[in-house]
Write a structure and sequence with these properties.
Protein name: Terminal quinol oxidase, subunit, putative (DoxD-like)
Helix content: 55-70%
Number of helices: 8
Keywords: Membrane, Transmembrane, Transmembrane helix
Number of strands: 2
Strand order of the largest sheet: 1-2
Structural class: mainly alpha
Strand content: under 5%
InterPro entries: DoxD (IPR007301)
Shape: elongated
Largest sheet: 2 strands, antiparallel
Organism: Saccharolobus shibatae (strain ATCC 51178 / DSM 5389 / JCM 8931 / NBRC 15437 / B12)
Length: about 170
C-alpha cells in the first residue's frame, strides 16, 4: 500500500471547507431570502421565539448573555441580525477559502455558542448539539490547517508569505 502524505490529503479539504461554509451561508439564505419573516419581530416565524426555548437549558456563560438579550427586544433583534450576518460573511469566506483561519475561528465560536445556548434539551432534541459538535470541530480544524488547494488564500499566498507580527509569522493559507 502506498504511503499518503499530508500534502496529498490537503487536496481533499475543499470538500469539507465548501460543505461547512455552505451550512453557515445557507442559514443566512433560509432566514433572509427564503423566509424573511424569521427576521421580522412582528411575525410568528420570528427566530427570537426559538431563543426563548433555549433559555431554561442554556449553559454559562451564554445563559446570562442570552437572558439579557431576551429581556431587551431591540437588543435581541440586533443580535439576530448580527449573528445572521456573521453566518453569511464567514460562511461565504469559508466557501471561497478566504481568510480561512479567521473564518474557522468565527464559525467554531458561532457553532459552539449555539450548543451552549441550547444546553441539553433532552434525548428528543439533540440537533443543536450535533450541529455544535460537528460544525465547531470542522471549523476549528481550519484554524490549524488553513486552506490550500482551490482557495483564494492559496492564490494570495503565492504573492504574500503571510502576516508577520513581531517575531511571529501567520500564514494566510
Amino acid at each position: 500500500m502506498a504511503q499518503v502524505t499530508v500534502e496529498e490529503t490537503q487536496k481533499f479539504l475543499p470538500i469539507l471547507r465548501i460543505t461547512l461554509g455552505f451550512m453557515f451561508f445557507s442559514a443566512f439564505v433560509r432566514r433572509a431570502i427564503n423566509v424573511p419573516a424569521k427576521l421580522d419581530p412582528n411575525s410568528s416565524a420570528y427566530i427570537g421565539g426559538k431563543l426563548i426555548t433555549f433559555l431554561p437549558h442554556a449553559w454559562a456563560p451564554i445563559k446570562g448573555m442570552l437572558e439579557n438579550i431576551l429581556l431587551n427586544p431591540s437588543l435581541l433583534y440586533e443580535f439576530i441580525i448580527l449573528f445572521t450576518a456573521l453566518e453569511a460573511i464567514f460562511g461565504l469566506f469559508m466557501i471561497l477559502g478566504l481568510l480561512t483561519r479567521l473564518s474557522g475561528l468565527v464559525l467554531a465560536g458561532l457553532a459552539w455558542g449555539i450548543g451552549l445556548a441550547a444546553g441539553w434539551l433532552g434525548s428528543t432534541c439533540v440537533d443543536e448539539w450535533q450541529i455544535a459538535a460537528v460544525e465547531g470541530a470542522a471549523a476549528f480544524m481550519f484554524v490549524f490547517t488553513g486552506s490550500r488547494w482551490l482557495s483564494v488564500d492559496y492564490l494570495l499566498a503565492k504573492r504574500s508569505k503571510g502576516i508577520r507580527i513581531g517575531k511571529y509569522h501567520i500564514p494566510l493559507w
